[in-house]
Amino acid sequence: xxxxxxxxxxxxxxxxxxxxxxxxxxxxxxxxxxxxxxxxxxxxxxxxxxxxxxxxxxxxxxxxxxxxxxxxxxxxxxxxxxxxxxxxxxxxxxxxxxxxxxxxxxxxxxxxxxxxxxxxxxxxxxxxxxxxxxxxxxxxxxxxxxxxxxxxxxxxxxxxxxxxxxxxxxxxxxxxxxxxxxxxxxxxxxxxxxxxxxxxxxxxx
Amino acid sequence: xxxxxxxxxxxxxxxxxxxxxxxxxxxxxxxxxxxxxxxxxxxxxxxxxxxxxxxxxxxxxxxxxxxxxxxxxxxxxxxxxxxxxxxxxxxxxxxxxxxxxxxxxxxxxxxxxxxxxxxxxxxxxxxxxxxxxxxxxxxxxxxxxxxxxxxxxxxxxxxxxxxxxxxxxxxxxxxxxxxxxxxxxxxxxxxxxxxxxxxxxxxxxxxxxx
Lengths: 205, 210
Known about the structure:
The structure holds two protein chains of two kinds.
Chain A: H1 3-7, E1 9-11, E2 18-20, E3 29-31, E4 38-41, H2 46-59, H3 61-66, E5 70-74, E6 77-81, H4 87-92, H5 96-125, H6 133-146, H7 149-164, E7 168-171, H8 173-191, H9 194-204
Antiparallel strand pairs in A: 1-2, 3-4, 5-6, 5-7
Helix pairs in contact in A: 2-5, 2-8, 5-6, 5-8
Chain B: E1 17-19, E2 26-28, H1 48-68, E3 72-76, E4 82-83, H2 85-94, H3 98-127, H4 134-147, H5 153-164, E5 166-167, E6 171-175, H6 177-195, H7 199-209
Antiparallel strand pairs in B: 1-2, 3-4, 3-6, 5-6
Helix pairs in contact in B: 1-3, 1-6, 2-3, 3-4, 3-6
């Protein structure tokens, strides 16, 4: 079978059914006829969208990571910790595993997703094929399973509600920018059409 | 071959093809790596069920220290009792923080237990050669896979509280060993779910047809 007829087919990743690869209009969803798995989603200008969303997220790195999350006080004493500093007490207490999990899943991977999304979309947008594009796209696909920005944001809300009971809390610029950045990170993982990314690469090849 | 009626229900493997799990392109079965993305190709995840059993049993064992050991101790003026996951949820309900209490209960207690039970059910159904409920079993897997990461919630909350509540002697939060066990349990279940190959459920359907 030549590569053109191979390209006209796809195998459902959940049930291995061989289906015809169809092109979709924006916002259309293709589901597997046998197991109903979501095969792919049509997007309008996916490459440009990824470029913009990931750039917006990247611009927020400094305020999100280094500005204080909140000012929290009781009896005149205050504490202003930034996101990066939340890992330090766990490390000091020798809680290596939770500290590394927090650092990777909630801090490093979301930024890595943004940086990779930006790097890949810039190159695809300019129709360039740098040497490491394929491994980078594969790393991107792998990271999508291990990135959990939305969980961390809900974690922040739960912690805030617990604290509001006993302390006075003033939300800081760090918290707001961190939440926006996590939202960008989440958008990159959900709205990007990975199918179209690979297709763009295929065309460029 | 692909144009007759039977092509409607033929799997990639039966057609002598392999679907790439990374870029979703179809490859001839002789290819060792994908012709588009260079990822290693496997028609089915190698040792899927064995790996899933090993990881799920590990997660079940970790569930015990994760629930019995304290997650954190909140001290105020030097006094405080260690809290396990369950006692933390109970305290949230006593403080009438119902929505947060429900979120923590679902993410930290319901999701891990249901996820592990779901994986056992899926694996046993494969060993028993169950040849019905293909769609519902695939759906169970999708739910297990989707909600898995939400169990990290409590680990994140503890680490935030440890970092934020540090106001001299007035109040501080000390992490407990339960955090490590819980964290490992969540990561193990995520690896278990990733190693489970849903295509094995559907292979049974084709065996039945033949």
